[in-house]
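On to our target:
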Amino acid sequence: MNDIQWKPKALKQLRKMDARDGAAIRQGVNTELANLQSARNVKALINHTYGYRLRVGHYRVFFNLESGTACIVHIEEVRKRDERTY
């Protein structure tokens, strides 16, 4: 079982979003990051500022692993792409 630490920036982003989305993110973080060996929505990132990414709905939770502790750094919303995106 990994410990989970929230950075102040991530907590601020979590407080600003809708309560249902925030609850879904907290639940996803607690279930997926508790045991990284069986996590389905976690991906290691290459050539990126952060080490790992967790998908929770249309949000991405970026975190680093530091001596067995998942340190959540940033939360980002993925917007819908349409014909005007590119």
